[in-house]
Amino acid sequence: MASSARYQLDVPLANTHRVAFETPHPAAAVTFPIRLDRSFSLEKTILVSRAVEVWGNVPASLFQRLDLRHTQYGYIGTCDFTMYPLLRPGTFVQIDSEISSIQPSAWRTEFDRPIYFVELRDSYACAWCDLAGSQLTLLPHPLSACSVRQFNYPDEAEIVGQVTAVAMRLVPAPGPVSVGVPGLPKRS
User: pLDDT tens across 107-150, in order?
Assistant: First the structure.
């Protein structure tokens, strides 16, 4: 994904284009999660690497662009609306763990503001963050109806890294939707 971003800057294309990926040799295999930990729950936000019980080689040319052993990936739980509607529950995020501290930056829009993946003592969170002394504040999206949360840093929370890419559904997932979230349709 890092090389993709570099090429986007090198060749700025004004129009939307179809992208073709090279096809690897048919016998090529990639390392991919084969079995998830039994405690893994789609409802909780988690680091993907911590949810995997067994890794194995899987022939899948689609997955060759993922560097699962060197890049961290997170999953935003189906009950985690912290960054909704910017990041929907069920979103996968790519995490740059080289950026493991809050970076002061000038941002103009919610899309420019850095989002961090945070390890709490009993769970994970994905949010905008502010650090004042030893107080880490997790800031939800204002439309999410979620509360601001504060933690003693680094005793109660650690920055895993900055979110650099997302894989997200653009329409709500089929099936029941959590009740009590403003703006979401209720389904039976």
Answer: 899 999 999 999 998 889 999 999 999 999 999 999 999 999 99
- Residue pair 150/135 in contact by the 8 Å Cβ criterion: yes
Nearest to 166 by CA among 74, 80, 60, 81: 74
Residue (of 32, 42, 90) closest to 62 by Cα position: 32
Cβ–Cβ under 8 Å, residues 101 and 160: no
Overall pTM > 0.70: no
Structural domain boundaries of the chain?
24-167
What residues have CB less than 8 Å from 12, skipping those under 6 apart? none
**In terms of Cα–Cα distance, which of 122, 130, 47, 116 is closest to 87?**
116
Q: Which CATH number applies to 24-167?
A: 2.10.109.10
Instruction: Please determine, for residue 20, whether its predicted confidence score (pLDDT) is greater than 70.
Output: no
Beta bridge pairs of residue 127: 116
